[in-house]
Design a protein that fits this description.
By secondary structure, this protein is mainly α. The protein has seven helices and no strands. Helix 3 crosses helix 4. The longest helix is centred in the first third of the chain and has 30 residues.
Length: 157
């Protein structure tokens, strides 16, 4: 049975004493994994450009093979909090978390500042290699630059 996102959000955001279905919970598990992956991947892009952090460097710090780092950075797969934490710590960052009310969530990604942008500059080869495969997201250097400038301005505030 397929359910529209709006129906899902309406049924799950009400605080009634109703059992949440595995598909409802699964949607948010996937969403959280994807958001965690995006945070780490964008951090890696920034750290690789600003400070020369490489997959090999991270692999040595975590006592893993570089191929494992590539898999983790390539897709969220079955990430755990340990995966997220290890990758953040390997790049010298402490993970932080937050929550938002379900009814305050945006309707879709069409409101994201990077959604629907058509840029011409490709991402660097290092990032492009990580951003390939069946579950990857298309990105460009302009997207990474735009995110870095947004991040810098928010950190300044």
């Amino acid at each position: 049975m397929t359910t529209s996102r709006q129906t899902l959000m309406t049924s799950i955001s009400c605080l009634e004493d109703l059992k949440l279905s595995p598909s409802q919970l699964g949607y948010f598990h996937g969403l959280a994994q994807n958001e965690a992956h995006e945070v780490i991947f964008r951090l890696f892009l920034r750290m690789s450009e600003d400070e020369g952090v490489t997959r090999s460097f991270m692999a040595k710090r975590l006592d893993k093979e570089p191929a494992q780092i590539t898999r983790w950075l390539g897709a969220s797969g079955n990430w755990t909090l340990d995966t997220f934490t290890n990758l953040a710590i390997a790049m010298g960052h402490r993970p932080t978390f937050g929550v938002e009310r379900l009814r305050d969530m945006r309707d879709s990604n069409e409101h994201h500042p990077l959604a629907g942008r058509n840029t011409e500059r490709p991402i660097p080869p290092e990032a492009r290699a990580l951003n390939s495969g069946p579950h990857s997201h298309a990105a460009t250097q302009a997207d990474a630059d735009d995110f870095s400038s947004q991040l810098a301005s928010s950190e300044a505030n």
